[in-house]
Amino acid sequence: MIQKPDGVVSGETMSARAGDAPAASPGRAGRSLFLSGKPPMPKMRRKADLPTRICTVCKRPFAWRRKWARDWQSVKFCSERCRGDGRRAARQEG
Ligand SMILES: [Zn+2]
User: What's the CA gap between 61 and 75, in Å, rounded?
Assistant: First the structure.
């Protein structure tokens, strides 16, 4: 129930408006969502969300991987190969 401060209840105008567009606007709004093509919330996780790190051997950035979930903080190399190279280099240095 909508009451105006004047004390005048605008029943006439309301009914006139309702008859103007019978339930067309809500239906259109719901449909436009589907017409946009893509769903509003994609389930895919974006790559940008993953943490990245610079490989200490090849100096290239690499992204977090599931196999590193346990010891991501100790991961320094992008691949097994770089890990081997890094260890070898470290040994030769000393
Ligand atoms: Zn690397």
Answer: 12
